[in-house]
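F.,

This is the one I mentioned.
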């Protein structure tokens, strides 16, 4: 032990073969319970792997990148809390990129895959351009996209059904007797902004309510920007009695502005958000919100990437996480109703 632990001593501590230790340390496909045993034994013995030498030999870095628009957004943090342990259990470190939804930064991340600084990438872009699609089609490492991409894009894809989610929330507001339902959206040149704006319009049509452009305000997916958009909407339409907000941060900004304006929530204006982040349950009043399964999407993306690293030739897979409505005080008052599964408010079983 004077020269430090070896794969032999690690194998003895883990109770596995030397070949198994070698496979784990070189990033070769191995059963997950074996990976955990070997990594735990290596940590206990203080084994330090020579990452540079190992990566040159195996062409593996044992690193995976996660590129997201805003590291401060609770929805991405929920994804991160699931991505990290899945990758760690397989012996991978996680490298984070916060792109601020700047397309050029996302393109740089995709270009950098050719430098082999990571073995794979999980990316959640708000905008998907032709340049994104070209680079995804020729990516030098496996990529999983969290979000919507066009049919036929040759990457694994995990997406939310925000269209159904918006309809769940608008239906809920309508069932509560609200008829002047405004929409505060993020930029409509983003994938979520376009989908959620269209879904709001469709939901009104399904309910027999007219679409009124004066009830729609476009801001950004941040609390302060959401607050400014809500203030503008209130000045234009002080008669609105409900707000459908494109994410929880916008909805929190709405609560700030409504409180400052002396408008009671939900008595005067009912408010619903999207993402059902930790902030939704902790806000005052607690926020009704549509969960888009951020945690589930993060876990599914990490699992798809690991599977792709082991089975590089398989066909791309798509996973869609269904939404669910979490009803709280911002729409129903102090006694929140239980969460409802998708379709429950439409009379589905």
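My design for it:
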């Amino acid at each position: 032990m004077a020269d430090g632990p070896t794969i032999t001593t690690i194998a003895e501590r883990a109770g596995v073969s030397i070949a198994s230790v070698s496979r784990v340390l070189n990033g070769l496909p191995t059963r997950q319970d074996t990976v955990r045993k070997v990594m735990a034994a290596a940590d206990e013995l203080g084994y330090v792997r020579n990452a540079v030498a190992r990566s040159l030999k195996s062409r593996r870095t044992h690193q995976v990148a996660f590129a997201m628009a805003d590291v401060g957004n609770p929805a991405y943090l929920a994804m991160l809390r699931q991505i990290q342990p899945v990758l760690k259990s397989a012996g991978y470190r996680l490298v984070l990129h916060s792109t601020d939804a700047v397309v050029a930064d996302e393109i740089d991340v995709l270009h950098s895959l050719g430098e082999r600084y990571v073995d794979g990438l999980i990316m959640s872009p708000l905008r998907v351009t032709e340049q994104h699609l070209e680079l995804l089609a020729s990516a030098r490492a496996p990529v999983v996209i969290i979000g919507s991409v066009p049919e036929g894009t040759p990457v694994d894809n995990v997406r939310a059904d925000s269209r159904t989610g918006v309809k769940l929330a608008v239906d809920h507001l309508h069932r509560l007797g609200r008829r002047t339902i405004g929409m505060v959206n993020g930029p409509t040149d983003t994938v979520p902004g376009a989908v959620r704006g269209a879904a709001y319009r469709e939901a009104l049509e399904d309910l027999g309510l007219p679409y009124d452009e004066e009830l729609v305000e476009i801001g950004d997916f941040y609390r302060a920007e959401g607050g400014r958009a809500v203030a503008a909407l209130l000045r234009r339409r002080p008669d609105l009695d409900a707000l459908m907000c494109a994410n929880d941060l916008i909805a929190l900004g709405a609560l700030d502005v409504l409180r400052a304006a002396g408008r009671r929530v939900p008595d005067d204006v009912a408010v619903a958000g999207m993402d059902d982040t930790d902030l939704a349950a902790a806000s005052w009043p607690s926020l009704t919100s549509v969960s888009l399964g951020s945690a589930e999407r993060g876990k599914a993306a990490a699992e798809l990437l690991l599977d792709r690293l082991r089975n590089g030739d398989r066909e791309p897979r798509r996973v869609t996480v269904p939404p669910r409505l979490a009803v709280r005080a911002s729409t129903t008052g102090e006694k929140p109703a239980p969460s409802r599964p998708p379709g429950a408010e439409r009379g589905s079983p």
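The first helix runs from residue 7 to 14.

Talk soon.
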